[in-house]
């Protein structure tokens, strides 16, 4: 089975401002563009056959920078989009706390129980991301793949690969521009390591 490389999109102005970018049109900061160039250089010899990403501008921009460096096609799939919490989009973490009371403390302390009308739960994010990943894997033969996505999506995938419960969500640390390698798929001993 192939290895899957997971990359969190490059840093954005919202990341620097402690703001929830959500599904806004947030683009990469200059630092994020440089991060993605460095990611592309680090992945140069990993024999990656295809790059997948979500439709958000920051992930698509990140994937395209890497794809241009590696001369690899990029495919954007809605299943790898950021979690849907529309009333938080564009707000700072402090503004969310002020405007929506207990929602943010719940999100921080027991994210698996976060459930608001018109929003996605982590279980729903995991289901759509895992479903898309499994469909992709079913169509490839020994080809390494790269997914560029968001912290929340990548955490949900790592939890799935390591057979951990959603309540362990906060134990997974992935910085902007981080590269994780998922190995051992189909062999019953999946490992996730940092590059």
Provide tags for this entry:
single chain; alpha/beta; Rossmann fold; six-stranded mixed sheet; 6 strands; 38% helix
Structure description:
The chain contains 7 helices and 6 strands. The chain is an alpha/beta fold. The protein has a single domain (4-194), classed as Rossmann fold (3-Layer(aba) Sandwich), CATH 3.40.50.1240. Strands 3-2-4-1-5-6 form a 6-stranded mixed β-sheet. Strand 5 (179-183) and strand 6 form a beta hairpin. The longest helix has 17 residues, at 122-138. The chain starts with a strand and ends with a strand. The mean pLDDT is 95.
Query: CATH superfamily, please?
Result: Phosphoglycerate mutase-like
Low-confidence stretches: none
- Radius of gyration, taken over Cα atoms and rounded to an integer in Å: 16 Å
The largest sheet has its strands arranged as: 3-2-4-1-5-6
CATH first level: which class? Answer: Alpha Beta
Q: What proportion of the residues form beta strands (DSSP E)?
A: 5-15%
CATH topology: Rossmann fold
Proportion of residues in helical segments: 25-40%
What is the molecular shape? globular
Q: DSSP helix count?
A: 7
Structural class determined from secondary elements: alpha/beta
End-to-end distance:
19 Å
How much is the average pLDDT? 95
Strand count, sense and barrel status of the largest sheet are: 6 strands, mixed
Count of extended strands: 6
CATH architectural grouping: 3-Layer(aba) Sandwich
Order of helices and strands: EHHEHEHHHEHEE
């Amino acid at each position: 089975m192939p290895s899957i490389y997971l990359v969190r999109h490059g840093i954005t102005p919202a990341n620097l401002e402690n703001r929830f970018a959500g599904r806004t049109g947030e683009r990469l900061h200059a630092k994020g563009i440089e991060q993605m160039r460095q990611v592309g250089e680090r992945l140069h010899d990993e024999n990656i056959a295809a790059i997948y990403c979500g439709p958000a501008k920051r992930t698509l921009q990140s994937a395209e920078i890497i794809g241009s460096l590696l001369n690899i096609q990029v495919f954007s799939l809605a299943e790898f989009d950021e979690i849907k919490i529309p009333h938080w989009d564009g707000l700072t973490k402090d503004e969310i706390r002020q405007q929506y009371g207990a929602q943010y403390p719940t999100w921080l302390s027991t994210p698996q129980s976060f459930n608001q009308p018109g929003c996605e739960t982590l279980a729903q994010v995991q289901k759509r991301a895992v479903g898309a990943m499994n469909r992709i894997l079913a169509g490839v033969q020994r080809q390494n793949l790269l997914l560029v996505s968001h912290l929340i999506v990548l955490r949900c995938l790592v939890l799935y690969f390591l057979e951990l419960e959603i309540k362990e969500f906060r134990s997974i640390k992935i910085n902007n521009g981080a590269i994780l390698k998922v190995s051992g798929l189909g062999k019953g001993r999946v490992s996730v390591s940092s590059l």
